[in-house]
């Protein structure tokens, strides 16, 4: 790590082994300038709590990470292996369990954890907030809304949903407590950052009114079963072979877009077809909202990633820093061998890049409302210069016992 050029150390293991991860953590954490650790791991590694918990719980530095379908370093996408990032800026972490629990009041939990709205907690001073969460949890939006209500504007939020292409919930969040399921991790970073968000998906049908939904499951559009409306549109577009057993093979090319007044549509990725014709998405689709069916092509998606980079560079204010890239795994599946073009649009050979191909993305730009996106590119540049959060502000916040939900 060079004090003048980058605030991070980035070390990569391509084997996906637990012992190799331990070696990376040892090497990175031994540098006295490192103040926090990030871990990006691939689902193909097959990590389990039994294997990882002793290793994670033994770390003295604050730690945040997740397991993803693929991870990114520089211009390279890995489907097996692990990246450890040593941060040269302050990091404080908070674990929020129960991300599908209908009884959890996330506002109450966060207020207790951070000490209330008038608390001098470092979370309220952090200019950058990293959010890593289980991408298949059923109450992501209520958590994200509670976080934004409490912390508000004037800071950059970025992050993504952990998970694998099996699309089954399992322990995916890495922290000092261990490897956790159905949880979110909030990392308060003591560094300024800039951000760009874009997706490149365009409407081909709609709008349709969401007349019935349950959380992440879309039941009816315009009072008809959601799949009936969806199938009819795709058949008019020439897509006739929709295999219910492999619905995601088609749906990843035709997501939904939720209308937002004065803002770009928020994409929702339908990945599971139910026998009753309802569709489960990554993220909630609220009853009463309006959605379009979207489509894109190689040019529109690659151009959108380039636009996200330009947005971040326009607002950064100073060159340099480390680039973080959260890019939806559905974009990889859609672009296939052309995905390298998208990554090349974001990667600069003179700037470190690290990130993940995620299941949903979390972002705002310091002013607009915080959102949980799907099928979107999120580019953030973390500044070199550290900002003190608060004297002694390091490590995980400990107001509740591990796994306790108020």
Fraction of residues in helix: 10-25%
Main beta sheet strand tally, sense and closure: 7 strands, mixed
Percent strand equals 35-45%
Mean pLDDT across residues: 90
Q: Which of globular, elongated, flat, extended, rod-shaped describes the shape?
A: globular
Count up the helices: 9
Query: What class would the helix/strand composition place it in?
Result: alpha+beta
Number of domains: 2
Low-confidence region ranges: 398-406
Q: Quick one: how many beta strands?
A: 26
The separation of the N and C termini measures 40 Å
Computed CA radius of gyration, to the nearest angstrom: 20 Å
Task: Walk across the major sheet and give the strand order.
Answer: 24-23-9-8-12-7-26
Please tell me about this protein's structure.
By secondary structure, this protein is of the alpha+beta class. The chain folds into 2 domains: 8-198 and 301-396, no CATH class; 202-295, no CATH class. It has helices at residues 18-29, 49-57, 106-114, 140-151, 226-236, 248-251, 298-316, 329-335, 339-346, and strands at 8-13, 36-42, 63-68, 70-73, 76-78, 82-87, 91-96, 128-134, 156-162, 173-175, 178-180, 184-189, 191-198, 202-214, 217-221, 224-225, 256-260, 263-273, 279-282, 290-295, 322-328, 353-358, 361-363, 371-373, 377-386, 395-396. A 7-stranded mixed sheet has the order 24-23-9-8-12-7-26. It has a 6-stranded mixed sheet with strand order 1-6-2-3-10-11. The chain is globular, with a radius of gyration of 20 Å.
Provide keyphrases for this structure.
alpha+beta; Histidine kinase; 406 residues; six-stranded mixed beta sheet; seven-stranded mixed beta sheet
């Amino acid at each position: 790590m060079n004090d003048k050029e980058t605030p991070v150390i980035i070390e990569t293991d391509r084997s996906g082994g637990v012992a190799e991860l331990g070696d990376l953590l040892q090497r990175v954490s031994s540098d006295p300038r490192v103040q926090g650790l990030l871990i990006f791991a691939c689902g193909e590694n097959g990590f389990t709590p039994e294997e990882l918990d002793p290793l994670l719980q033994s770390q003295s530095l604050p730690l945040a990470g997740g397991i993803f379908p693929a991870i990114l370093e520089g211009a390279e996408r890995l489907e097996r292996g692990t990246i450890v990032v040593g941060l040269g800026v302050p990091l404080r972490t908070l674990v929020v369990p129960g991300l599908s629990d209908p009884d959890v009041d996330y506002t109450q939990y966060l207020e207790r954890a951070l000490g209330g709205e008038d608390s001098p907690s470092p979370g309220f001073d952090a200019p950058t907030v990293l959010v890593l969460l289980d991408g298949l949890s059923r109450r992501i939006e209520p958590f994200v809304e509670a976080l934004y209500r409490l912390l508000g504007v004037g800071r950059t939020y970025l992050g993504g949903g952990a998970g694998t292409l099996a699309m089954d919930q399992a322990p995916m969040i890495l922290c000092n407590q261990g490897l956790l399921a159905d949880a979110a991790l909030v990392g308060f970073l003591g560094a300024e950052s800039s951000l760009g968000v874009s997706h490149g998906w365009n409407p081909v049908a709609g709008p349709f009114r969401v007349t019935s939904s349950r959380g992440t499951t879309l039941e009816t559009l315009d009072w008809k079963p959601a799949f009936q409306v969806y199938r009819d549109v795709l058949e008019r577009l020439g897509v006739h072979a929709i295999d219910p057993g492999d619905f995601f093979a088609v749906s990843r090319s035709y997501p939904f877009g939720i209308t937002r007044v004065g803002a770009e549509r928020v994409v929702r990725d339908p990945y599971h077809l139910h026998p009753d014709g309802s569709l489960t998405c990554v993220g909630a689709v609220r009853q009463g909202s309006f959605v379009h069916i979207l489509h894109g092509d190689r040019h529109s998606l690659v151009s959108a990633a380039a636009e996200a980079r330009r947005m971040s560079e326009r607002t950064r204010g100073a060159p340099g820093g480390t680039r973080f890239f959260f890019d939806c795994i559905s974009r990889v599946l859609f672009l296939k061998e052309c995905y390298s073009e998208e990554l090349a649009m974001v990667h600069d050979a003179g700037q470190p890049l690290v990130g993940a191909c995620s299941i949903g993305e979390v972002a705002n730009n310091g002013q607009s409302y915080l959102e949980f996106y799907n099928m979107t590119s999120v580019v953030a540049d973390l500044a070199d210069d550290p900002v003190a959060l608060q004297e002694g502000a390091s490590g995980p916040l400990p107001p509740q016992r591990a796994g306790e939900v108020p």
